[in-house]
Amino acid sequence: MPKILVMDDDPDIIDALDTLLGGEGYEVITAHDGEEGLVKIREENPDMIILDMLMPRLDGYGVYKALHDPQWSEWKDIPIVILTSVSEDVSHRRYELETGVRMEVAAYIEKPIDPDVILEGVRSILEA
Amino acid sequence: MRKELLYEISRSVIAAVGVQNVLWAIVESITKGTKAKGCALLVLSQDGEKLYHRVSYGISPEYIGKGVIEVDDMIRCVLAGESVLVEDMANDPRIQYPEAAKHEGFGSVLSVPMRSYTGVKGVMRVYAGSQRTFSKDEIDFLDSIAELSGLVLEKEEERDRMALEANRAREEVSRMSDERERFLYFIRMVAHDLKAPLAAVESYLKIILKGSTGPTTEKQEVWLNRSVKRIDGMLELISDIVDLSKLEAGLDSPELTPVSWTEVLNSSVEVARGLTEPRGIELENDIEQNLPEIFGSEVRLCQLINNLVSNSARYTSTGGKIAIRAHQVEDNVEVLVEDEGRGIRPEIIPEIFNDFFKGDPESLEGTGLGLSICKRIVEMHNGKIWAESPAPGKDIGTLVTMVIPKGVVCSHIWGKPE
C-alpha cells in the first residue's frame, strides 16, 4: 500500500489525517516539523508528502526548497500536496500572490480537512 | 486704530524680513534718529520679576553683561504704561548699575513701555551720551516704536507657540498611527491563532462524519453537521476580520502591480462557476476582452468579484441566474454583478456597505463584513460601488455596479472610510 508522509506541527491535524488515511489502508508516517520530515523522507522514501506551510525549525517552503537541491535529486519527484490555512478559497493563484511563494506542487488543499477532498486528491495523485 | 495699524505693519514686516531683523532695525534707527548713544529692548521674564536683554545697538557687551535688572518701583511705573526719564544715570538712586552706566559713558536714559495685545512685553531704553531731556513729540514717537516692538515680540511668541503645538500634534498623530498599526497587527495575529484550533476541531468532526471512527447515530450526525456549519461561520468571520485589518493597514507595495482586468474577471468567473453549478444557478458572463490594465492588487480585485458573486449565489435559488458583465466606458471599467435573488429592501440599501451590517440580523449565515470589504477594495482603487434593487427593468434581484478608473494608481495608504 502506498506510503504517505504527513508533515504538520499541529498534532491534531496529524492525528486526523492518520485516522482518515490509515482507515483507507494507506501507510501513514508523520513528522512535526520540516527537519524531522527530511529525515523521514530519507529513511522511509514515501510515495507522497502532505506538507503544512507554517512549521517551526524548517517550514514547508524550506522543505520544498531542500528537495529541489541537487543532493536531494533522488526524492525531488515525490508528489507534494500543500495543506494550508492561508486563504479561504483554495486558489493556487491567491496563495502565491498572498505569500509571494511560487511552487510546482501536485495540489493545494485547505484546512479544515474535508475527507472527500483529501481522499480524492491523494487517490488521483497516486494513480497518476 | 494705532494698535491695529502697527500690528498689520509688524505682521507684514516680520513675514518679509524675520523677527530678529525687524528688532535690529528698530534699535539702530532709534539710536541714529534720536542722536542717542544706544538703544536696547529688555524683555520681561515670565514671572514678571526681571528684565532680560533681547537686542540692542551702540551698547558694549560689558554693559549688556553687567547683571540682571530687577523689576523695581521705577520699572513697575514703566510697565504700568508711563515713560520715565532719568537725566543723570551715574548719580540717580533709581539706577541699578550706576558705575557701569558711567563707565559706558551714558548720561540720561528714557524708558518706554513695550505694549502689546496681551500686556506689556518689556521696556525699550534709549541711552543718551549726555544729560538731556526728550520733547513730548519725541516721547510720543518712541512710544509708538516701543509698541511696535512689543507687537513684534508678541507675534514671535505666538509663532513659537504655534510651532510647538504643531510639533506636538505631529507627534500625537504619529503615536496614534503607530498604535493603530500595532493594534491591527494584534488583530491579525489573534485571528490567525484562532483559525488553527478551529481547523483542527472541524477536521475531526468531518472525519467522524465520514465514518472513519465508526458509525454515528442520526442525531449525532445532525449535530456534527451543525457544528461544522457553526465553525465554518466562525472561520469565515475570522478570515473577514483578517482581510479587513489588512485593508485598514494599507496594502503592501509588492502586492501592487499592473493588473489585467480581463484576467481578473476571467479567473473570477471560473471561481464563480464552482459556486453556481452545484446549486443549479445559471452563470451568464459578458466580459469585454482586452479591458485596460489597472495598477492595483490582483488578490483584492479577485476577492471583490468573488465576494459579490458568492453573495448573489447565497440569495439566488436553483434555476435562477447570475450575470457578470464588464465593459470599458470612457476612462473607466464598469463591472456589474446582477442576480435574481430576493433583492434588498429599499430602506436598508444605504446601509448594506457598512461594517457588520446584516439585512437579517438573526441569520447565522454571512458575517456582515463582505460588502464593507468590497467597498474598501473599490475605494482603494479610486472607484465607486453601489447597489440597486430590484435590478433595473426587473421586479426582482439586485444589481451591484462598480466603476473603477482605468490605469489608476491604487491608493496605497488607506484611511477610515467615510
Automatic annotation (TrEMBL), chain A:
Pfam families: Response_reg. Gene3D superfamilies: 3.40.50.2300. The keyword Phosphoprotein applies. PROSITE patterns: RESPONSE_REGULATORY (PS50110). Residues 3-126 form the Response regulatory domain. SMART domains: REC. The modification 4-aspartylphosphate is found at residue 52. The keyword Phosphoprotein applies. GO terms for biological process: phosphorelay signal transduction system. InterPro entries: Bact_response_regulator, CheY-like_superfamily, Sig_transdc_resp-reg_receiver. Keywords: Phosphoprotein. PANTHER family: RESPONSE REGULATORY DOMAIN-CONTAINING PROTEIN (PTHR44591:SF3), STRESS RESPONSE REGULATOR PROTEIN 1 (PTHR44591). This is Response regulatory domain-containing protein. It comes from Candidatus Solincola sediminis. The lineage of its organism: Bacteria, Bacillati, Actinomycetota, Candidatus Geothermincolia, Candidatus Geothermincolales.
Automatic annotation (TrEMBL), chain B:
Keywords: Coiled coil, Kinase, Phosphoprotein, Transferase, Two-component regulatory system. It holds the Pfam family GAF_2. Its main location: membrane. CDD domains: HisKA. One of its GO terms (cellular component) is plasma membrane. It catalyses: ATP + protein L-histidine = ADP + protein N-phospho-L-histidine. This is histidine kinase. Residues 189-408 form the Histidine kinase domain. Its EC number is 2.7.13.3. Gene3D superfamilies: 1.10.287.130, 3.30.450.40, Histidine kinase-like ATPase, C-terminal domain (3.30.565.10). It comes from Candidatus Solincola sediminis. Residues 152-179 form a coiled coil. One of its GO terms (molecular function) is phosphorelay sensor kinase activity. SUPFAM superfamilies: ATPase domain of HSP90 chaperone/DNA topoisomerase II/histidine kinase, GAF domain-like, Homodimeric domain of signal transducing histidine kinase.
